[in-house]
Design a protein that fits this description.
The chain is of the alpha/beta class and 138 residues long.
Length: 138
């Protein structure tokens, strides 16, 4: 019999073609010996268009409800562009939708980065982006 000894369970929702988020989150959890486990859910994503990225955001509540079955402590929508595709504040809307759908605190990649930069007191930043120009403009 396996006994669940994890102190925290982290849920991540990623675009189906993302090959980085799960690996990096797991690596960071093991590196810091946090006692955390990572549980992932994928949303279909096969076209890098504005409509496709917006559609993914509409799937976050349902994906969150499925992750809630694993009794995760937090759920992160791990799609950076998906957190700002509709402009400032959209990331917070997604966070609220996760919480409303599950009762579990939610975050997004961009909300977490923004919070970290604010806590660090960052005034100027430089960004390197893998995104196409249309998304960079957002």
């Amino acid at each position: 019999m396996v006994i669940d000894t994890w102190q925290q369970k982290i849920g991540v929702i990623v675009p189906s073609w993302n090959t980085v988020m799960e690996y990096e989150t797991q690596r960071l959890c093991h590196m810091g010996q946090t006692g955390a486990s990572v549980h992932a859910m994928r949303i279909p994503h096969t076209a890098d268009t504005e409509d496709a990225v917006i559609w993914m955001g509409t799937q976050v509540p349902a994906a969150s409800r499925l992750l809630a079955h694993a009794k995760v402590d937090v759920i992160c929508y791990g799609c950076t562009g998906g957190g700002f595709i509709k402009g400032p504040g959209y990331d917070q809307e997604i966070c609220a939708e996760i919480k409303a759908a599950t009762g579990i605190p939610g975050t997004t990649t961009i909300a977490s980065v923004t919070e970290a930069l604010n806590l660090l007191g960052a005034k100027r930043i430089s960004i390197a982006s893998p995104y196409e120009e249309w998304l960079n403009e957002k």
